[in-house]
Design brief:
This protein has 896 residues and is of the alpha/beta class. The protein is built from 36 helices and 20 strands.
Length: 896
């Protein structure tokens, strides 16, 4: 070992142990280098693997660190030539940075309350531009060949700024950023509902983008393996934030992506080291932590940490002093260094180690100030993107180190307050202009004028050329795919329409109807059954044999139940998606299928069947994002209600999902009681979504309770779809109207009979298949009348069926607030019975008595309403309470 190669300061290893024999260490390192030179890197890796195995065998080490040194994964010698015009691309990026900044600052100077984000896009601009210019494919008008890109939501202004240069958005659009009501505004984040021709996927609720990206990539493979679409050349890219990776959904499905070898998937994590309020890991290193997470999950990890200006310094660092310095520096300090100038970095980073200081002894403060992080270097990013696109048999994550607020100087660059920076003073704006050499006068800067180069300028011609080479502009959303024929209801639903008293549950009916749809020649292949490890619970085991369970590798084992009729059958072309115990994963699969009409130009019909309690309550944010994305499909909330799931208890019994569903504008929610109602609703929804292309989805609850199923009365279909129709009348003269839904409707029917036979009270019973649909219709009629006072008022469906002042008693298996949705639109006294409170374990009959929704409580509620109206004496109510053994002293169920 030559004297010049010897370290000038004592070297310590990763565990803090000093090097006792530098000469011996040098010999080992030289031997490794010799193997690489003469036998190649594969041989060197083999020897390292054997050494690691031996070290573990003799108890020397437990395991190797799950992360690599704090440097770029791709060395300079393996970096491919840059294929683009760097000068023009940097110029375009600077223009977009300015327009994005101006857009946000203008909106907040004008109104002061609109918000918006500048710093996130400032850190990610090179990432986006590299993708737009060289990787993100647009495909043809049908979506064939198109990549799917998940954009970091806080960077939306930058995407708008690019669309402005492309001519897709006007200055008027940019002027109305976050002013969607006041003018031709742009929404805050990617929202397909609000910009249906522009944004493809929503990412505004952080953490939802990563899990949806994974399942979209998997669904591409699913379509290809089933022979429905050619997705071989399509790629899913997700640009996310390092702070965003704290969300459980961000990392919850990483192992699925590796397990299914999704090499059509790349995450690009914008590691600016900052969350909304400060460092992501002030006392640690988020990049090393994320590398550990992704490596452990089986992903290919590429780190892009340092720009090209560092290459010469690394070349001189033969003893890796700089790497040791990096490893010892926590993110909180990196943030401080990023906010300071070259002189500060020389003193407080390089100057704290003599060997590191010597590496930059020839550099001035200005030279050090020009050292960039890798996420701001097009050459380094291109090498990473190209390597990711070429990776086979596993997904890739690129960890790109950037500065939050890059270019904002003292107004926000690497500052704690960067995320909240929405206004800049004139001096800061001029400094920004000067840093990026923008052709703006002082007056134009002060006015925050948007800048667009001349139409035939080198910049705009280059921009168009690059997008033409990649198939067109992005983001871009296609509104629909070709319609799909739907079978006649009678062809597959005869068992439900003509049940004639046969006992079955509505869950059984739903599964049989699904099986019928699967057998249809045209629609059947488009149906995607999805479960979260509950297929047998819901009686879907027959689908294992009928359509198979999707697996990208088929079935590599003989299942334990191979000799049975309904054995567990996995197949490469399987149709059923059995997701395991992950509601978040299952709903993400549903979203991928429910948006295939737009993403792939191929309308699919997903049915996700699950415990109803584990839907809106557990993954409600993902369902809301699905609504934003204009999803089409069925959510089947099985074992629904608070009293139909005997024995399970508090966290399994659902009493609120219909109330939440009612808050989603394009969700059509139904609670059918009878098999024929289930059939009519599924047929109606299928036709609306698959044949008519409506941007809506259906939530339908199903119960596991068997009871006698009547045949469908003539003319009932319209009322079923609208939400209310008459099912029975008892007694000569109607004195009270009873409404029921789902599994409580049989109790309501019994109550109607009891009122007539035991109390001489006439009752009409209605099935309320959807209180939310009734409420929307009534709200619409009320609004029309209010805004058109001179026109004849339209009567709502509720008003048509429930006229007059006779009391109305509504009972459901859900909280009272659900039937009370229609209370304002009923003329008579409205009494709601429901299952407010916590669920608990017991039999159905005891649960219904406890929650006061059984037939006896319904009778008492009807008699009490009549007594309040003066129709009958109150003594009759007291008599009923005593006869049925009800206790006035029992605590209300919602209090215990």
């Amino acid at each position: 070992m030559s004297a010049s190669a010897k370290p000038t300061t004592p070297i310590t290893g990763p565990r803090g142990v000093a090097d006792a024999d530098p000469g011996e260490t040098a010999d080992w390192l030289a031997s490794l280098e010799s193997v690489v030179r003469h036998a190649g890197p594969e041989r060197a890796r083999f020897l390292l693997d054997r050494l690691e195995e031996k070290a573990k065998a003799i108890g020397l080490v437990d395991e190797a660190p799950p992360y690599s040194p704090y440097r770029n994964t791709i060395p300079l010698e393996k970096q491919p030539p840059y294929p683009g015009d760097l000068v023009t691309e940097e110029r375009l990026t600077s223009i977009m940075r300015w327009n994005a900044l101006a857009m946000v600052v203008r909106a907040n100077m004008a109104y002061g309350e609109l918000g918006g984000h500048v710093a996130s896009y400032a850190s990610a601009a090179e990432i986006f531009e590299l993708g737009f210019n060289h990787f993100f494919k647009a495909g043809d008008e049908t979506g064939a060949g198109a990549d799917l890109v998940f954009f970091q939501p806080h960077s939306a202004p930058g995407v708008y700024a690019r669309a402005f240069l492309e001519g897709r958005l006007s200055q008027e659009h940019l002027t109305h950023y976050r002013q969607e009501i006041a003018g031709q505004g742009l929404c805050s984040y990617p929202h397909p509902w609000l910009m249906p021709d522009f944004w493809q996927v929503p990412t505004g609720s952080m953490g939802i983008g990563p899990i949806n990206a994974i399942y979209q990539a998997r669904f591409m493979r699913y379509l290809a393996h089933r022979g429905l679409a050619d997705t071989a050349d399509r790629h899913v890219w997700g640009v996310f934030g390092d702070g965003e990776m704290d969300e459980p959904e961000s990392v919850g499905a990483l192992t699925l992506a590796a397990r299914e070898k999704l090499d059509n998937l790349t995450f690009v994590i914008n590691c600016n080291l900052q969350r909304l309020d400060g460092p992501v890991r002030g006392n640690g290193q988020i990049i090393q932590e994320l590398e550990s997470v992704f490596r452990g999950a089986g992903w290919h990890v590429i780190k892009v940490l340092w720009g090209s200006e560092w290459d010469a310094i690394f070349a001189r660092d033969t003893n890796h002093a700089l790497l040791r310095r990096f490893a010892a520096t926590v993110d909180g300090k990196y943030q401080t260094l990023g906010a300071k100038d070259g002189a500060y970095n020389l003193a407080h980073f390089f100057g704290e180690d003599e060997e590191v200081k010597a590496l930059v002894s020839h550099m001035s403060d200005a030279d050090v100030d020009r050292l960039k992080r890798g996420g701001h270097d097009f050459r380094k990013l291109y090498a990473a993107f190209a390597a990711a696109r070429a990776t086979r048999d596993r997904p890739t994550v690129i960890l790109a180190k950037t500065k939050k607020g890059y270019g904002m100087g003292g107004a926000g660059e690497s500052r704690m307050t960067a995320h909240q920076a929405k206004k800049l003073d004139t001096d800061a704006l001029k400094a920004f202009r000067d840093r990026f050499a923008l052709p703006l006068s002082d007056a134009e800067v002060e006015r925050l004028d948007f800048y667009r180069p001349p139409e035939e300028s080198r910049e705009l011609r280059y921009l168009r050329e690059r997008r033409d080479a990649l198939g067109g502009f992005l983001p871009k959303r296609r509104r629909t795919g070709p319609p799909v024929a739907v079978p006649d209801l009678a062809a597959y639903a005869g068992f439900a329409l003509d049940a004639d008293g046969k006992e079955m549950s509505t869950t059984t009916a739903a599964v049989r109807l699904l099986g019928g749809l699967l057998r249809h020649k045209e629609l059947g292949p488009r149906v995607v059954p999805i479960v979260a490890d509950e297929a047998r619970t819901f009686g879907m085991a027959n689908l294992f044999r009928q359509v198979g369970i999707y697996s990208p590798v088929g079935q590599l084992y003989e299942p334990e139940d191979a000799g049975s009729m309904l054995f567990y059958k996995e197949a490469r072309d399987g149709q059923l998606l059995e997701e395991g115990i992950t509601e978040a994963g299952a709903i993400s699969s549903w979203v991928a299928a429910a948006t295939a009409y737009s993403v792939h130009g191929l309308a699919m019909l997903p049915f996700y069947i699950y415990y109803s309690m584990f839907g809106f309550q557990r993954v409600g944010d993902l369902i809301w994002a699905a609504a934003d994305q204009r999803a089409r499909g069925f959510l089947i909330g099985a074992t629904a209600g608070r009293t139909t799931l005997g024995g399970e208890g508090l966290q399994h019994q659902d009493g609120s999902s219909h109330l939440v569903a009612a808050t989603i504008p394009n969700c059509r929610a139904y609670d059918p009681a009878f098999a024929y109602e289930m059939a009519v609703i599924l047929d109606h929804g299928t036709r609306r979504m698959m044949a008519e292309g409506r941007d809506e989805f259906y939530y339908v609850t199903a119960m596991n309770e068997n009871y006698a199923q009547p045949s469908m009365p003539a003319g009932a279909a319209e009322g079923i779809v609208r939400g209310l129709y008459r099912v029975a009348s008892f007694g000569a003269d109607e004195a009270v109207r009873l409404l029921g839904s789902g599994a409580i409707l049989p109790e309501v029917i019994h109550a109607g009979r009891m009122l007539a036979e035991e109390w001489g009270v006439g009752a009409t019973v209605f099935s309320a298949t959807s209180f939310s649909e009734l409420a929307r219709d009534a709200q619409g009629a009320e609004r029309e009348a209010r805004l058109n006072p001179g026109a004849p008022a339209r009567r709502s469906h509720v008003a048509e069926l429930l006229p007059g002042g006779a009391p109305v008693v509504a009972a459901t298996d859900y909280v009272r607030a659900y039937p009370q949705l229609i209370a304002p639109y009923v003329e008579g006294r409205f009494v709601a019975l429901g299952t407010d409170g916590f669920g608990r374990s017991d039999t159905r009959s005891r649960l219904r008595r406890f929650f006061e929704v059984d037939r006896q409580h319904i009778v008492v509620a009807a008699l009490a309403a009549l007594a309040d109206a003066g129709t009958i004496p109150r003594t009759r109510v007291a008599e009923a309470v005593a006869r049925y053994g009800l206790s006035a002293d029992a605590p209300a169920p919602w209090t215990v």
